[in-house]
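sanity check this chain:
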Amino acid sequence: MEEVPDHLDYGLQIVFIGFNPSLRSGEVGHHYANPRNNFWRILHKAGLTPRLYEAAEDGELLKLGYGFTNIVARPTRGIDDITREEYNTGRELLRAKLEQYRPKVACFVGKGVYTELARRSKAEWGFQEDTEPVVDGVREFVAPSSSGLVRMPMEEIIGIYRRLSDYTAEQGA
């Protein structure tokens, strides 16, 4: 199965970083394409996008200053199918992408994505203020996973993403 291409560029406000693409995303070649994934609804309801986008429009979000990548590029059924070797390789590739493109914010879509990259045992929701960033000058924001399997109430998830929306509005994005 094909890897889902990154959508990265210089000068981005936010790069959203997932664990890896779902099998559905791998089939169609777009990020967060599983119909049970709430990513696109969360972005819209949190005020990060002016309208509800669809997965097939993921490349269009570059115009809004948003990019997409994953810590592991290979599509899988779930994160349990990702090997330790893939995480090790992915961690180095992701760090290099962040160093190259230097977005204002790296938004980790799930605590586990952040703890894998940063090699930390835990993280709080939101901006990681009390830790040294993995890449100097790139603010780190940890948001809940958008998977339909997440048990957190949707309004709570949206509230966390809204903090990121408020931050970008304050920055004049």
In short: Residues 20-170 form a domain with the Uracil-DNA Glycosylase, subunit E fold (CATH 3.40.470.10). The longest strand covers residues 14-18.
